[in-house]
Design a protein that fits this description.
With 70 residues, the chain is an all-alpha fold. The protein contains 3 helices and no strands.
């Protein structure tokens, strides 16, 4: 599925929030859903080492690449 927003657009939106603008207002002004902007901010945090990936609830060890128990 193609991404409808180019990386530069996403980066600019995240930068506005990082500069102190409220996320909800930024989303409204840019015409995107606030959850979309929240996801972009979360991904930016992960990409830049400010946040670690959360473990996926309900996924067994084999799905995480762990060896099965004997």
């Amino acid at each position: 599925m193609p991404r409808p927003y180019p990386p530069e657009y996403r980066a600019r939106a995240v930068a506005l929030v990082r500069a102190g603008k409220q996320a909800k207002q930024t989303a409204v002004e840019l015409g995107i859903h606030p959850v979309t902007l929240s996801n972009w901010i979360r991904q930016d945090d992960i990409d830049n080492g400010r946040r670690q990936l959360s473990p996926v609830v309900g996924i067994g060890g084999a799905a995480r690449g762990e060896a099965p128990h004997p």
